[in-house]
Amino acid sequence: MPSTDILLTELDIHLFNEGNHANLYEKLGAHVVREGGRLYTTFRVWAPNARRVAVVGSFNGWDSAAHPMSPVGSSGIWETVVDGVGPGATYKYEIHSHHNGYRVQKADPYGFLHEVPPRTASVVWKLDYEWNDAAWMADRKRRQSLGSPISIYEVHLGSWMRVPEEGGRSLTYREAADKLVDHVTRLGFTHVEFLPLTEHPFYGSWGYLVTGFFAPTARYGTPQDLMYLIDRFHQANIGVIVDWVPAHFPSDEHGLGYFDGTHLYEHADPRQGRHPDWGSLIFNYGRNEVRAFLTSSAMFWLEQYHVDGLRIDGVASMLYLDYSRKHGEWIPNRYGGNENLEAIALLRHLNAMVYERAPDTQTYAEESTAWPMVSRPNYLGGLGFGFKWDMGWMHDTLRYFSRDPVFRRYHHHELTFRALYSFNENFVMPLSHDEVTHGKGSLLGKMPGDRWRKFANLRLLYAYMYALSGKKLLFMGSEFGQGSEWNHDSSLDWHLLEYPEHQGLMRLVTQLNRVYREQPALHTLDTQPGGFEWVDANDSETSVLTFLRKGTSRPDVMVVLNFTPVVRRAYQVGVNRLGTWSEILNTDAVEFGGSGVGNLGSVEAVPIAWHGRPVSARVTVPPLAALFLEGPQPTPAMEAEAEPAVSSD
Question: What fold does the segment set 4-123 form as a domain?
Fold first, then answer.
């Protein structure tokens, strides 16, 4: 009889079969038990259409006759117990189907560890680890709320930094715990986000074609090594977000596809079950057991690995039955529409489960369409995510920045259009990996002009992102101006930090993170209309934008952005407070690689009405640059003096 800790009860089976089990990883898969002097491992796998299942592995010479498995009632689950098997043993399930004489060896869908690719066996493993992040876990709800400063450093671990002395291999999880944690800490980001760390056979997929939904990739170490990395981030007060991929999975033979001789995890009809863009398989979201599998995977990373957030990849492809499909290549839903009702139900169920059981975590949707209320609660008709990536802002902004400044006046709307929808969702503003690959070049390469103007434009781009309402995300290498397109097979170009322009850009990113964290006006009302107020959105002739950021407490921050290389002297800006406005950030500062044009630290607001406001200030606006000006704290005297003395249009 297996240990009571891993005993499969009637309640477990009932919850699994109705799709409401969120801890299947505690019951299915391989679990090591030591009782007295006895060591054994229980194996369980779901294969309802099999006529015979056996566990084969290094402990029985891969002999399918050695350890046959038995069905557990009519649940579709098979199980066995193998004495003497402990951590490190490799195994698969050999499945003989009722259909067409199909016979295959499959990796464990619930395996905690798999062999390093290209090998494909699962590895028996325990997840014991002594965490040292109690302080972070107790405080992370405050650090991850809608009003908290959240700036995210996005990382592909395998190519962030490599070891040239050892053939250019990637860092291990534990090596990254020293180098990467230190780098993110010095830059001042609040969070790190990893491209998928789940096991995947094809390295060139960047982890987005997953075979191990409960296993970190063994390329960089063991599960405990990844736990150590996350632990170290938490001890440095940095949150950890991981990309999680329920949109599709690869068709590799050892994976989930055609698992028991039937299309068990995926749809049988290719119009529903095959992704036209990637050639991968699409989950059958309407199958209860598949829903339980995916929900359990999400909760596994939050609960077992102390992950602070899940970025859900490919949400748009889940929501639409006709995603990337032509007429006749998709099947309408029961109402005749193109909405994937089963996927919608899964996402709502998943988000409800996450926020019920881990309310101090967040989910982030990569959703690129105008689907409404992605980051609104289920009870309001939303999908229940905490945040949504603002892909529209990213596309409009990069298109605008790619233009020569001479012509930007004709495309001013590409900057201001976001105001029409900026508070419809809780947005993250992503300058992500997708924008620096597949022939798109680097962010620096997208900027027009000579070398100086390229860097000035890039500094302006980053400041513009940090100034707007919404959380921030920057892909690795962008912090120092990676010159070439990202290549997953090589390290970032760290040697560029030998040059002043790249050093200056990284200093700016560090200062942007500091100012963003320290100024409540820049984050406390990030998702509320009251946190943003236009001063002048319509000065297309000079390509200047001015607006105020406002928090739950004073002072306000005035932002002035000049998208041309022309210095704007004595540029008059209406403000809401008399007194001294301190220049807390100037992207044209010499320390950042700029020309040093500025306001000698501050400007004075005087009682001259402008922009419909009772007071205004004359500002020197540097070329291709952003100014952040911190307003004075209001006093009763200031309030009395705020009446207009001189009126001007």
Answer: Immunoglobulin-like (2.60.40)
